Amino acid sequence: MKLSRYYLAAGLLSVSAPALAQSLTSAETAQVDKTVTDALAKSGVPSASVAIVRGGKIVYAKAYGKQAETGATRDDAPYQIASVSKQFTAAAILLLQREGKLSLDDHVSKYVPGITDGDTITIRQLLSHTAGLRDYWPQDYSFKAMATPVTPQQIVDRWAKKPLDFQPGTQWQYSNTGYVVAGMIVEKVSGQKLLDFLKARIFNPLGVTVYDQDLAVGSGFPQGYGRAALGPVRPVQPPARGWLYAAGELAMSARALATWDVARLDRKVLAPEDWATQETPVKLADGSSNGYGLGVSTGTANGRRTIEHSGEAVGFLSENIVYPDQKAAIVVLINSWSSDAYQTIAQKLAGIVLSPAAADPVDAAALARVRAAFDQLRDGTLDRSQLTEDASYYFTPTTLGDYRTSLAPLGTPTAFVQTGKPRLRGGFVNRSYRVTYPGTTLSVSTYAEPGPNGKLEQLLVTPTQP
């Protein structure tokens, strides 16, 4: 049940219009449907359930494919979300701290005895994977012991009493064991089972239904699938009860998880200060951080701030990404643990439903000037008042003719975007662009005088790979 970090490619500046603030257009809906169905077809994953938040509202929720060997596919079917559950365990701790019943800086020995160096490990370190406790499930398969039911105490006895992998607070290492301990602390302090506490304090107020993933099996629930290498996709045997617990015990629908994402955006259910605490990266003793907070990972994708976590259960993978500055979120749940389709779908949905990142106004103005010059070259005309003396010298009648005869048959580009950042060279500002046609991609390299109205010193077009 390892964390799988989510990354997107570097952002591009685009001249396309921004997406609508909320509901999906019919064209966007068609793109979403095609994205998911294509990913399932190519990967062999039996089904996916997705939810989209835009403008702070859930605007789309739909399930695709085969959720089990029998029964209809349901949009509200609860998939096992595995480690995405960790943020809920962390939220329970934050709620109890808000009530003065514990502190993130309490040592774990105060609540759970017998843990190695428990008098030096804090609850904050459990939740941020900086405690040094040995992870009980680093494998991406069910190991032998998982065929037998287990209790949280038995996990602690076998793994949390081993020598620490490092001194608490000095390194980051993903540890499901730490979250088992955190769940035990919630139960001791609250006097309730962890899931009962979460239902009473989070899920019931949100009006969503969740399940213990150990019980979300059999008729009416999605079946988990897997495959060996490139072999056939087969149903997999779920683990015995108890193995996920506070590290990943929840099963819920994509819409239900998106409802929680909306609460995060609106700063509801938890106090605003507690949301901020969960999303603040924890620093190591040397002052460094990898961006992980308390049950969530923070970062950027395509220039947008993200709050993210993925999950892996036996036969299931999940991705939950919140874009706080865009008031948006994407949830992707699949019922196979043998494909990265969940991340592929999430990345492509982001490209469909999020407005393009705001461009630097100087870059945007430069893009408009370059695009205008490019269109003139396609037509065999060129406004030489926009060129420096050297650029005008370069565009001889022969060169201008070659540009026209080679570019005009391609028609109008489907995309014209800046790639990378501008840089200075030789007293000019260098910018590069990618021009896309069906089946053809061109690269445009420009140099221009500095300033908003700087003349073009260079505009060269070369073919490239799509």
The DSSP helix count reads 13
* N-end to C-end Cα span: 36 Å
Which spans have pLDDT < 50 for at least 5 consecutive residues?
2-21
- Cα gyration radius (Å): 26 Å
Main sheet summary: 6 strands, antiparallel
Q: What share of the residues lie within helices?
A: 25-40%
Widest sheet: strand ordering: 3-2-12-11-10-9
What is the overall silhouette?
elongated
- Percent of residues in β-strands: 15-25%
Number of strands: 16
**Order of helix and strand elements from N to C terminus:** EHEEEHHHHHEEEHEHHEEEEHHHHEEEE
User: Which structural class do the helices and strands define?
Assistant: alpha+beta
Kindly report the average pLDDT value.
Answer: 92
Topology, please?
Layout: E1 12-13, H1 26-43, E2 47-54, E3 57-65, E4 79-80, H2 86-98, H3 123-127, H4 152-160, H5 176-190, H6 194-206, E5 211-212, E6 225-226, E7 234-235, H7 245-248, E8 250-252, H8 254-266, H9 272-279, E9 297-301, E10 304-313, E11 316-323, E12 328-334, H10 341-353, H11 361-379, H12 389-394, H13 397-407, E13 415-425, E14 428-437, E15 440-448, E16 456-464
Antiparallel strand pairs: 1-13, 2-3, 2-12, 4-8, 5-8, 6-7, 9-10, 10-11, 11-12, 13-14, 14-15, 15-16
Helix pairs in contact: 1-10, 2-5, 2-6, 4-5
Give a structural overview:
The protein has 466 residues and is an alpha+beta fold. It is 32% helix and 21% strand. The strands form four sheets. A six-stranded antiparallel β-sheet has the order 3-2-12-11-10-9, with helices on both faces. Strands 1-13-14-15-16 form a five-stranded antiparallel β-sheet. A three-stranded antiparallel β-sheet has the order 4-8-5. Strand 6 and strand 7 form a beta hairpin. It is elongated.
